[in-house]
What we know:
Layout: E1 3-5, E2 12-14, H1 27-38
Antiparallel strand pairs: 1-2
Amino acid sequence: MTVVSCPTCGKKVEWKPENKFRPFCSERCKQIDLGAWAEEKYTIPGAPPGDADDESVSKE
């Protein structure tokens, strides 16, 4: 059996199909994480939009 830590609170959680909130321990922790994404507390690194390397820009 695989055991992981809840990303929100750190509680140990069994990774099994019966745990509908996995990898979270509860719906509360899942909603806290979703709220953090909605408030843009997390970001995914990448080039800013409209960067000079953008292939959609024609260089004629």
